[in-house]
Amino acid sequence: xxxxxxxxxxxxxxxxxxxxxxxxxxxxxxxxxxxxxxxxxxxxxxxxxxxxxxxxxxxxxxxxxxxxxxxxxxxxxxxxxxxxxxxxxxxxxxxxxxx
Length: 99
Known about the structure:
single chain, two-stranded antiparallel ribbon
């Protein structure tokens, strides 16, 4: 995750350094990249890094899926009625229906 942020930070830094030529009247001039505004792109780079991190997290989950809980932890087995007696009672009834 940190690799994505570092890579995008280096790209932004290089773009800013390539575009700034100096200060005139308290304002930076951009000589190499006319009309380039690095401040307007920082939000887009931040969003891009967020998407890259989410994709990285999804890839990690696919490669190493989380362990699922045991079924006994999900289902309250005490709430399920015991059906053994019911089957003993219904068995002869079903046998009589076959005749």
